[in-house]
Amino acid sequence: MALLFDPPQNPTYLADDVIAGVCADPGFGKYFTDHMAVANWTAEDGWENDRIVDYSPLTLDPAGAVYHYAQEIFEGLKAYRRADGSVWLFRPEANAARFRNSAVRLALPELPESDFVTSVRQLVALEERWVPSGEEQSLYLRPFMLASESFLGVRPSKRVLYSVIASPVGSYFSGGVAPVDIWVSKEYSRVATGGTGSAKCGGNYASSLLPQELAYAQGCSQVLFVDAAERRWIEELGGMNFFMITSDDQLVTPELNGNILPGVTRDSLLKVAPQLGLTPVERRVSLEEVVTGIGDGTVRELFACGTAAVITPIRSLKDDGHEYVIDVDRATRTLPLRNLLLDIQYGRVDDPFGWTQKVC
């Protein structure tokens, strides 16, 4: 039976002026809306008790399985307010499909993709007043699933909680889009072959935090990981996919190999690239190829992409004793890619792919 995620009969909200004040300068992930979507799963009864409730802390026993074995997954997507005041989602079915694949890898129950989309749509419709309207502002949505059974045995949990929370967010770049420096980690790996690299789960992000701190210490904004086996093949950043643009107008990204998260933004950029005269290519990319290409000019531009920032231009790659710097004066293709995707998301241009769907 399909889940409905019905809203409460008499929802309550913060005062309109308080919400307006938050949306005027929301930051990222600092404030949360009045309600959240929730559903429960048990091995005996399956999915049930779907509802939208007041935003509130979750109550889990100290023996809750998620605390001890990290059996959880999450997603990230956005709702966008258009110039006419309407609110739209961007490719929620793609997030739903990835969420389902993540659940399989983490031995969690699969939430039907239609139920995922319903939960998101219902929450956005209820929280419409929280969708900001400023430049590059949006309502960030965080669906997640976690093991909620209280036990200390090592096995998949027989009780699971699913929820969606929402947070108004501003532009990722408060001072405008600017190229960043990236630290190449050769000591630490994000994931290994056969691991959880293609799933969106907290453990992958936890493993990136120490190398991320080391990147900060080197004056870099992010960390780039190579493969764990040969320390040769580029995989992804701590939380973003990696791209390069070559002198012959190829848009190249590492192919999905089980270690790399199949980003929705990644896939979208590959599909819109031909509109800007770029040829999308998915293949293995070695670190040597990239640094050599920066030196001889065959690699013109580098960037990272993800839901939060859309596209982050890369100025340089750094490792122990070396810095490989892009000639930013020749980097003319990255920002048009970013702008095209944003224009589709905000409805400023036609959506030839049918990616956007109106909520209210």
From TrEMBL:
GO terms for molecular function: branched-chain-amino-acid transaminase activity. It catalyses: L-valine + 2-oxoglutarate = 3-methyl-2-oxobutanoate + L-glutamate; L-leucine + 2-oxoglutarate = 4-methyl-2-oxopentanoate + L-glutamate; L-isoleucine + 2-oxoglutarate = (S)-3-methyl-2-oxopentanoate + L-glutamate. The keyword Ubl conjugation does not apply. Pathway: Amino-acid biosynthesis; L-leucine biosynthesis; L-leucine from 3-methyl-2-oxobutanoate: step 4/4; Amino-acid biosynthesis; L-valine biosynthesis; L-valine from pyruvate: step 4/4; Amino-acid biosynthesis; L-isoleucine biosynthesis; L-isoleucine from 2-oxobutanoate: step 4/4. PANTHER family: BRANCHED-CHAIN-AMINO-ACID AMINOTRANSFERASE, SUBGROUP IIII AMINOTRANSFERASE. It comes from Brooklawnia cerclae. Keywords: Amino-acid biosynthesis, Aminotransferase, Branched-chain amino acid biosynthesis, Pyridoxal phosphate, Transferase. InterPro entries: Aminotrans_IV, Aminotrans_IV_CS, Aminotransferase-like, B_amino_transII, BCAT-like_C, BCAT-like_N, BCAT_family. The keyword Heme does not apply. Its cofactor is pyridoxal 5'-phosphate. This is Branched-chain-amino-acid aminotransferase. It comes from the Bacteria. Belongs to the class-IV pyridoxal-phosphate-dependent aminotransferase family. CDD domains: BCAT_beta_family.
